[in-house]
Fold this protein.
Amino acid sequence: MSKIRVVVHGALGKMGQEVIKAVNKDIETELTGVVDQHLSKDSGEIPNCPITVPSSNQISELLLNTDVIVDFTNSEAAYNLIKIAPKAKTHLVIGSTGITDEIYQEAQKQSEANNTGIVIAPNFAMGAVLMMHLAKISGKWFEYADLIEMHHEGKIDSPSGTAIAIAEAAGKERKTKFQSPESQKELIKNSRGGVSKSGVSIHSGRMPGRVAFHELVFGHLGQTLTIKHDSINRESFMPGVLMAVKSVTKTPGLTVGLEKIMGL
Ligand SMILES: NC(=O)c1ccc[n+]([C@@H]2O[C@H](COP(=O)([O-])OP(=O)(O)OC[C@H]3O[C@@H](n4cnc5c(N)ncnc54)[C@H](O)[C@@H]3O)[C@@H](O)[C@H]2O)c1
């Protein structure tokens, strides 16, 4: 069986570096090129890459003889990729976040017109995707929900996008919001956290050493149910990325979300 030839777009970034390691380790995939705005043709050794592969700062130079491009750059670079790669019959796995409706529409158009596959997933951590699924099927059976999320001290936003998605999933099959009792005396401001649209109280912690931690506690009379996921490092995204790489070559058109590939 021939291996899937993979080019990594955003190869010098934190996620790109993990993808290089994962693709080199997997017996079904083969790293055939790396692209980053800070690379050139004669970049020489690439960090974390034990083999020498063609490198460039232009994806257009590495489109030939490539089965799948894995992108972890930003939404703008991903958009450019979507406009050119399917025309060269190359499949795409996109992890860059901030993908707008316009970009999704272009991805749909290009993948269908060129009969190629595009996977776009805002979260490749299988456990986090499963957590959203479990939150969705559990939410309607409980009346209260608290969500605690913890990330590294450099995270720009709070709560995390994943926390918002979990809270939305928890409320998806409910007719009413969760109850979110207010304290009569709030001795420290905001100690009850922020409240999501579905009524989940969200508490955000920030400190060094954390990657991405989410704990959802549902409550009802005399019982609680806790669902917890902890991303210890960026390797946590790689089983999902490899699953998408293997699926995308067989699935023409646009697939949004790892949950579709997992059949959830
Ligand atoms: N889907 C997921 O599960 C998931 C997980 C983590 C991060 N992300 C997203 O992945 C993206 C990258 O994250 P990161 O932490 O690796 O960021 P990073 O800043 O460490 O890496 C981005 C890399 O992309 C390169 N780059 C930027 N523009 C480029 C262009 N036009 N052409 C070629 N290379 C370009 C940069 O030089 C850099 O090396 C972000 O959008 C982030 O939110 C997604």
Remarks:
- Residues 101-114 form the longest helix (14 residues).
- The mean pLDDT is 95.
- The chain has two domains: 4-120+235-262, 126-232.
- The chain has seven helices and twelve strands.
